[in-house]
Write a structure and sequence with these properties.
4-stranded mixed β-sheet, 2 domains, Glutathione S-transferase Yfyf (Class Pi), Chain A, domain 2, about 210 residues, about 60% helix, alpha+beta
């Protein structure tokens, strides 16, 4: 059985949603629920980052985009990755874009002290404000570049949709996009409502 290490309101939601689309058995391990779970995560992933996915054979895959690509290739019938090679390339490109640009900015916003030698409050606030502004701009660019690759009502959502739907939930990105890119914001809302994905997102972000 697949074992997914994560916690609520985290990037693990994208992987949990992908596992649901793949229709495979998995166990979600909340690393905030017990010290034992946190220790096991540290053993599997020395960076202690989530999501971390342990495969049924014991192998470990980390990094959200890598996990989604693995699942898409392992379960092609899920539709996580497009069957067409050119479309698949763009989906992978979009996921790497999110991880390298948006996730990075969110890490700075959440943990500014990691990036400062002398983390005084003024420096922290300045760094967080700059990172948030950069994050919102990178989502605008994403919307302009990748909206054509995203899920529509008569299609199955893919890995790129899942990652965008989850990572836009942080640091005020959804509210910014509501005004800056309303069409993209509407796409995200459709992804949220998908009948397979909605219960996963509700567990991570209860109303």
């Amino acid at each position: 059985m697949y074992q997914l290490y994560g916690h609520r309101n985290s990037g693990a939601a994208a992987i949990e949603a992908a596992l649901e689309l793949c229709q495979i058995a998995y166990r979600f391990i909340d690393v905030e629920a017990s010290g034992e779970a946190a220790q096991e995560l540290a053993r599997l992933n020395p960076l202690k980052q989530i999501p971390t996915l342990q495969l049924p054979d014991g192998r470990v895959i980390t990094e959200s985009a890598a996990i989604l690509v693995h699942l898409g290739l392992s379960f092609p019938e899920s539709g996580l990755l497009p069957a067409d090679a050119a479309d698949r390339d763009q989906a992978i490109r979009g996921m790497v874009y999110i991880v390298s640009n948006c996730y990075t900015a969110i890490g700075i916003i959440d943990y500014p002290e990691r990036w400062l030698v002398m983390p005084d409050e003024a420096s922290r606030q300045n760094l967080m404000a700059g990172a948030r502004e950069r994050l919102h701009w990178t989502w605008e660019v994403f919307a302009d570049l990748f909206s054509a690759e995203l899920y529509l009502d008569d299609e199955r959502p893919g890995a790129l949709d899942l990652l965008a739907a989850v990572v836009t939930r942080w640091a005020g990105s959804r509210e910014h996009l509501r005004h800056a890119r309303p069409g993209f914001h509407a796409w995200l809302a459709r992804i949220d409502r998908h009948p397979v994905l909605a219960p996963v997102f509700a567990r991570h972000w209860p109303a």
